[in-house]
């Protein structure tokens, strides 16, 4: 299933920057508000500025703040980061995986545990509705169901068992004797 974080960057307050990124990472940022957002008492000012309190799209560190803040919120929900895989998490108890790409959350695992995992995440992160993969696009790929070829799976499992029990010499022989692989002919050097 997929879900989008609603206004992702805005879910992180700039006051959290020091804790998330380190001391003096983000200087105080001041912004001008459009006139239609001014409170009535501001009419006497020409161009008032106010401190930026909310992480804002376009801020130089907005993406990094969302990344670090969302990682923290995801881990609070019982997910663990998968070592060597950026933005991939596992919830061992619920047996689900979560892939995150900016504000797109993509979850797979035990079907009966998906709703509970989404519920945990929604306690920390404002997420839109979760949608099934079928015909949904994620990272530019359209998800669709594929009919499982059980014979092909059995062949692959058998091949994996052979590879696991084979020596290097056995593997070379198997590879060199397959139709798909032709050993290149040795070139004779001209002297």
Précis, in short:
This protein has 191 residues and is an alpha+beta fold. The protein contains five helices and nine strands, in the order βαββαββββαββαα.
Helix content: 25-40%
Beta-strand residue fraction: 15-25%
Question: How many strands, what sense, and barrel or not for the largest sheet?
Answer: 5 strands, antiparallel
Overall average residue pLDDT? 85
Strand order of the largest sheet: 1-7-6-5-4
Low-confidence stretches: none
Total strand segments: 9
The Rg value, from CA coordinates, equals 26 Å
Shape: elongated
| Termini separation | 65 Å
Structural class call reads alpha+beta
How many DSSP H or I helices? Answer: 5
Task: Please provide the ordered H/E string of secondary-structure elements.
Answer: EHEEHEEEEHEEHH
What does this protein look like?
Helices cover 30% and strands 16% of the residues. It has helices at 17-21, 62-76, 111-122, 150-165, 168-176; strands at 2-4, 30-32, 49-51, 80-81, 88-91, 96-101, 104-109, 137-138, 141-142. Strands 1-7-6-5-4 form a 5-stranded antiparallel sheet. Strands 2-3 form a two-stranded antiparallel sheet. The longest helix is centred in the C-terminal third of the chain and has 16 residues, at 150-165. The chain is elongated.
Question: Any chance you could write out the topology, listing elements then pairs?
Answer:
Layout: E1 2-4, H1 17-21, E2 30-32, E3 49-51, H2 62-76, E4 80-81, E5 88-91, E6 96-101, E7 104-109, H3 111-122, E8 137-138, E9 141-142, H4 150-165, H5 168-176
Antiparallel strand pairs: 1-7, 2-3, 4-5, 5-6, 6-7, 8-9
């Amino acid at each position: 299933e997929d879900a989008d974080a609603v206004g992702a960057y805005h879910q992180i307050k700039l006051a959290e920057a020091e804790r998330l990124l380190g001391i003096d990472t983000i200087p105080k940022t001041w912004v001008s508000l459009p006139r239609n957002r001014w409170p009535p008492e501001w009419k006497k000012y020409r161009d008032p500025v106010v401190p930026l309190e909310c992480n804002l799209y376009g801020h130089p560190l907005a993406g990094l703040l969302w990344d670090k803040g969302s990682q923290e919120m995801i881990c609070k929900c019982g997910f663990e980061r998968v070592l060597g895989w950026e933005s991939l998490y596992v919830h061992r108890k619920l047996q689900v995986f979560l892939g995150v790409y900016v504000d797109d959350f993509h979850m797979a695992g035990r079907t009966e545990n998906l709703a509970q995992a989404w519920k945990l995440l929604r306690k920390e992160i404002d997420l839109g509705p979760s949608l099934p993969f079928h015909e949904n696009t994620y990272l530019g790929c359209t998800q669709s169901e594929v009919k499982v070829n059980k014979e092909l799976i059995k062949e692959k499992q058998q091949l994996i068992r052979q590879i696991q029990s084979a020596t290097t010499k056995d593997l070379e022989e198997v590879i060199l004797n397959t139709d798909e692989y032709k050993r290149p002919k040795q070139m004779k050097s001209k002297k």
